[in-house]
Amino acid sequence: MRLSTRLITFCAGLMISHASLAGELPQRWVSAGGALSEWVSVLGAESKLVGVDTTSQHPESLKSLPSIGYQRQLSAEGVLSLKPDVLIGTEEMGPAAVLLQIRGAGVPVEMFSAQADLASLEGNLQHLGRLLGDEAQAAQVFKNYQQQLDQHQQQVKAAQATQQAPGVLLLLGHAGGKPMIAGKDTAADWLLTQAGGHNLATHSGYKPFSVEALAGLNPEVLVFADRSLTGEAARKALLKENPVLASIRAAKNGRIYEVDPTLLVGGLGPRLPERLKQLTAEFYPAAPASQ
Amino acid sequence: MRTLVKPRSLFIGLSALCLLSIWLSLALGPVSLPLFDTLRAALRLVGVPIAGEGLEQAELILGQIRLPRTLLGLAVGGVLALSGVAMQGLFRNPLADPGLVGVSSGAALGAAIAIVGGAAFGGLPEFFGPYLLSLCAFLGGLGVTALVYRLGRRNGQTNVAVMLLAGIALTALAGSAVGLFTYLADDATLRTLTFWNLGSLNGASYARLWPLLIVTAGVALWLPRRAKALNALLLGESEASHLGIDVEGLKRELVFCTALGVGAAVAAAGMIGFIGLVVPHLVRLLAGPDHRVLLPASVLAGATLLLFADLIARLALAPAELPIGIVTAFLGAPFFLYLLMRGRH
């Protein structure tokens, strides 16, 4: 038989066997997408993960799983070598040709949304619930999440009744050097706005900044996300690499705060509400602490 | 002339190495297949009628993943090395590489336009989307090279020195245009662009392979016919034309073959540096500068080196994968230095 005909027969065979298996739930999962892997863990299915991509950094225990590399640069054979029942990822996953090869080998590729909004999260959680065979739990998790965000919005409204929204900038950098400012249409912008801040940057996407422009905007609060350092070390590095920052209001008043950069990729993650609450408290220091 | 290796033994050695690299490239990967299964699946792929029970996975991995990847590696490695020989012959300078006539920077510009522009415009038709990048890279490479060639021509003569300088200027220009697109790109497209610049044989498919195989076969069959003319050109342009060589025609052919070959290779596998510069060098160190040996030997050596590099790229961090551009230089540069140092004593 010729190669092509044999392949077609084989693929058809795979589809049939796949359809007959549709009742069975996937047991070996490979996840390419940070927030997605976190949600799998939250839904209690971490033990089903047999491989994750490099953006899956939380919870910490995921780091001990085999790494399939960066989500846009997957290798078909690499993923297949983990013998997965399913590959989950967002529309950021690729390259497309590799996804085709993985599907061709009979491994379903389930696509999720990386959009940072509640509707996408609801869809993602429903989808995960179906794959895990526990849609009720997934629905409950979403409901709780929504409630947390709603409550948080009340907190922001209450704070804004007595105080003006602070002008904020978010810097994304690497060991303090050459930070970029988060503009419109970024997860960072969503985070700042949701926390009740006013993002002073008006460009879209992440762009390198000119120190003069930054000093000119003179934000009341500075939020930074550092990809290689954390805590005090990151703060020091930022000020050391960018001395002009010392002259802005945020630095003078000690209002420089940190967010974990992994919160900013792959859509709304489970750790966001917690950080939002804190951020709001940091934006509105005079407001009573939330319940 | 005395050389380190006689042409005959060079060809035997290189062919053996090349066959070895092909076999390893088919037999090894993150998915470990029993050797016997690989062998049987390989025999079935070439049409030997043997029983195929239990071979589904082996056949799929071999036929749909490793074979196209191996063919892609052979073609890309071969055509890049060949273009390197053509450029070093044209400029009569061993430091020349295909980038000099602007084909690489033009392709990079085309790719940047496709990646950043494609992301901005979004909804491309399903059947065309995946090919946009390849097509833009190919056309970019061809376009900039044509411009460089055009700028080097005056009164029906091609001035190689002017062409070289025009190549440098246009490379700088294309580089700054790529920089502009980098600035405009968002985080995701930026990563795509970065990885494209490091090259990869990942995700090879037959649909993308055929154009490259045809171009490679064409260039690999055509250039060796001009080996004698290239040898004559080594003496100098006027000397070559006194020997009865159509120097202008030769230059045109060399530039055209390079633009076509490198353009197609880059379109299929992204930017893979080093092969075009160093492989011809390696062969010359081993077997001397005679183009009758240099051209075919470089094809073999380039293909072999790229396949070995790809083996490391896919195995070193499995199940993740390294960009191959990192490996080619990492593998080739020390070996090249070793030969260079040895040659001095």
UniProtKB/TrEMBL annotation, chain A:
InterPro entries linked: ABC_Transporter_SBP, ABC_transptr_periplasmic_BD
Gene3D superfamilies linked: Nitrogenase molybdenum iron protein domain
Superkingdom per UniProt: Bacteria
Keywords of this entry: Coiled coil, Signal
N-terminal signal peptide: 1-22
Coiled coil: 135-162
Residue ranges annotated for the Fe/B12 periplasmic-binding domain, each copy included: 28-287
Name this polypeptide is given: ABC transporter substrate-binding protein
Organism classification: Bacteria, Pseudomonadati, Pseudomonadota, Gammaproteobacteria, Pseudomonadales
Automatic annotation (TrEMBL), chain B:
Domain of life the protein comes from: Bacteria
Keyword Cytoplasm: no
GO aspect biological process, one term: siderophore-iron import into cell
Record-stated family: Belongs to the binding-protein-dependent transport system permease family. FecCD subfamily.
Subcellular location(s) per record: Cell membrane
Classification via Gene3D superfamilies: ABC transporter involved in vitamin B12 uptake, BtuC
Coiled-coil segments: none
Membrane topology reported for the UniProt record: Multi-pass membrane protein
Transmembrane domains' residue ranges: 71-91, 100-122, 128-149, 161-185, 205-223, 254-281, 293-313, 320-341
GO CC annotation terms, alphabetical: plasma membrane
One Pfam family per UniProt: FecCD
Species, as recorded: Pseudomonas fragi
GO MF assignments: transmembrane transporter activity
InterPro entries: ABC_BtuC-like, ABC_transptr_permease_BtuC
Identification of the protein by name: Iron ABC transporter permease
